[in-house]
Design brief:
By secondary structure, this protein is mostly beta strands. 1% of the residues lie in helices and 60% in strands. The protein has four domains: 11-168, Sandwich (Immunoglobulin-like), CATH 2.60.40.1190; 174-225 and 618-656, no CATH class; 238-284 and 292-418, no CATH class; 420-604, no CATH class. β9 and β10 (142-145) form a beta hairpin.
């Protein structure tokens, strides 16, 4: 389809409401209903592979933030919180809402029921909200938007949404939500026997006002959370593991700060997890999230228990952000880690100027942040970090530039810092024309330059350089993807680097060139895959890397995926190979009853980790989990089970 052309299939939407719910009815007519693609069914499904219908609601009508709700013809549910006009989103947010669908010989149809208690909005008697709709007809790779249908726009850009009028008399919505949980199970560890496990605790959620929510948690437990994906670290820098715990995910977007990905003043995985990734009990905590007028507020305080030599510790984070102009903001943030002997804090300010109307309909952002850390028992108690960036993320021209800095004394102990004592200069330009003389081609992608140049913050000497040139990349109209890249890298080792057991790269400056190919097939098919191949020099040797992944969608109930990563290193100190395997079987009986088996192994740990998880949602907001974690030692020819955990957990939602 061409930009601005009329949709090939008719879509209709109707909106109703009563005192408790917003109802949205959708008619997705289709002249070939037997060709509708609907592969997924579980909660938070991967909607990029299916026919789907999405709604975004900007309840504050600030043209910055919104609630995103998506379904497919199977009635699967996906939701997210959208911030900063689509620049940030929290896909881990699980709102309380429901949707029912039906497929007929005329197409597919959906009815959404969204409780007003799931949304935050001002107290005006007559509401004025932003709203927009998007339908994807996957087999045609056709995207239909009600408003903002330019290729430089997307549904998440609420500044381009339409307006919803006529909702009156809902300002008295109040909610006290109680979510107690009970957990029982058995843990078996090799050599120590069986331990019976039981916990009770829960969360209390209270709408202080329709726009501000108070959460309290007691004896918080995360036994239902899926296992981390093991990572073999072949770099000199820290690995990042994503947060998966619901309590921390729900309000994550409120604590985002403008220092970017590599310098995070607040990283919630520092709470309740020891450096060896074992758990530390969370005694309780309190959190306040919301927006009043043009001000967004976020505050959280968590107390963890004492464990071995780790004292009981308080973690507190405060965030204030003020909307200015049409889409811009200023903010401050404070993060603290306190125990009986020491304190570590980070405080900072950030600024964002954003517009989606540059030259008519182009998006541009300019921003920056400055932060200071304080560590009470350090010789150099304070340290600084900052970031300045420019971004022009548009359809045909995508350009960005960043200057990051983290001083040697900057120490965010409740945050994430990938490397210390550095300055980074980054610049990236992508050109994405859509030629019409090749009927099978949707878009070309060229990358004249993309580099990250790191220097030592004190000596200004080279630390690292990663640069990439893309002579060719393209996406076909049928959905296939290909790109070829040439990379020029540099590393300045100030000390010997042991990359693998017994294999050390001597200190010194290294320059090397690598080559890369990527190819992926269209995800709307029952079987699709991805291939990554990279080869070339690596420090003073060679490295070849393969990554393969594939997905087989047997039907809407069963999905199988697998991946394999192979790294072969040839260095003067010797050769070695890293192999990593992963696989997943997803099963869904209905949108409210689904489960998965996740397995992984690598030849470094030589342990098979299996995670079996069933999730039943009897009513929206209530969850039952059954979880089995299994570890199998494969170091010797006789495999043996080392650790087994079997747990059941029920989280029940009551509304008072």
């Amino acid at each position: 389809m061409h930009e601005g052309q009329a949709a090939s299939e008719r879509t209709e939407v109707a909106i109703l409401y009563d005192k408790e719910n917003l109802y949205i009815g959708v008619w997705c007519y289709d002249n070939e209903p037997d060709k509708i693609i609907a592969q997924k069914m579980k909660r938070d499904f991967d909607y990029d592979t299916d026919d789907d219908f999405g709604i975004i609601i900007d309840t504050y009508h600030d043209k910055r933030n919104g609630y995103l709700f998506i379904t497919n013809p199977n009635g699967a549910r996906f939701d997210a919180l959208v911030k900063d006009n689509g620049q940030q989103d929290n896909e881990s947010w699980d709102g309380v809402w429901n949707v029912k669908t039906r497929v007929t010989d005329k197409g597919w149809f959906a009815e959404f029921a969204i409780p007003f208690s799931t949304l935050k909005f001002n107290t005006a008697n007559e509401q004025v909200w932003g709203i927009n709709f998007e339908r994807n007809i996957r087999r045609k790779r056709e995207q239909v938007l009600w408003q903002g249908w330019s290729r430089d726009s997307e549904l998440e850009q609420v500044s381009r949404a339409g307006t919803l009028l006529g909702i009156k008399g809902i300002s008295e919505v109040t909610l006290v939500e109680v979510k107690p949980y009970g957990l029982i199970g058995v843990e078996h560890q090799s050599g120590t026997g069986d331990d019976f496990v039981s916990h009770i605790g829960g969360d209390l959620n209270y709408l202080v006002t329709p726009t501000i929510k108070l959460n309290a948690t007691i004896n918080t437990d995360f036994a239902q959370v899926e296992s981390d994906r093991l990572q073999v670290n072949l770099t000199r820098f820290s690995l990042f593991y994503p947060e998966k715990r619901e309590f921390f995910l729900e309000g994550r977007d409120y604590f985002n700060f403008g220092l970017g990905y590599s310098i995070q003043p607040f990283y919630s995985r520092r709470i309740g997890l020891a450096p060896d990734r074992s758990t530390i009990s969370i005694l309780g905590g309190i959190r306040l999230l919301g927006k009043t007028g043009n001000t967004t507020l976020g505050g959280m305080s968590i107390q963890t228990a004492k464990k071995d030599t780790i004292p009981s510790t308080n973690y507190t984070v405060l965030r204030w952000k003020r909307d200015i102009w049409k889409q811009s903001s200023i903010g401050v943030m404070g993060v603290g880690k306190f125990d009986s002997h020491r304190q570590n804090t980070v405080q900072g300010v950030d600024f964002l100027y954003s517009t989606s109307s540059l030259m008519g309909n182009k998006t541009m952002m300019v921003g920056g942040a400055l932060a200071q850390s304080y560590t009470s028992d350090s010789n150099d108690k304070t340290g600084f970090a900052h970031r300045v960036f420019f971004s022009f993320p548009n359809d045909k021209v995508d350009f960005s530039a960043i200057w990051d800095r983290a001083g040697a004394e900057f120490n965010p102990e409740t945050g994430f810092l990938r490397r210390r004592n550095y300055q980074m200069f980054m610049m990236d330009l992508r050109l994405k024309p859509r030629p019409t003389f090749l009927p099978w081609l949707q878009r070309l992608t060229f990358k004249p330059f993309d580099f990250n140049y790191y220097i030592d913050d004190q000596t200004h000497e080279l630390q690292s350089l990663w640069s990439e040139f893309r002579p060719l990349g393209f996406t076909t109209k049928s959905g296939e993807f290909f790109e070829a890249n040439i990379q020029r890298n540099a590393e300045n080792l100030t000390a010997d680097f042991e990359i693998h057991d017994g294999n050390t790269i001597p200190r010194g400056e290294y320059w090397f060139t690598r080559y890369e190919l990527q190819f992926a097939t269209f995800q709307g098919r029952p079987v699709y895959g991805f291939l990554f191949f990279q080869w070339g020099d690596f420090y003073n040797g060679k490295n070849t890397e393969w990554y393969l992944s594939g997905v087989f969608q047997l039907n809407k109930h069963i999905n199988i995926s697998t991946n394999y990563n192979h790294n072969r290193f040839t260095l003067p100190g010797g050769s070695f190979t890293i192999n990593e395997f992963g696989g997943r079987l997803n099963m869904a009986i209905s949108p409210d009853l689904f489960g998965s088996i996740f397995g992984q192994w690598n030849n470094e740990e030589q342990v098979i980790l299996l995670n079996y998880r069933v999730n039943w949602i009897p009513t929206p907001g209530t969850n039952f989990y059954f979880v089995i974690d299994q570890a199998i030692d494969t170091q010797n020819s006789n495999w043996h089970i080392t650790n087994t955990t079997l747990l059941t957990k029920l989280i029940w939602r009551f509304v008072l």
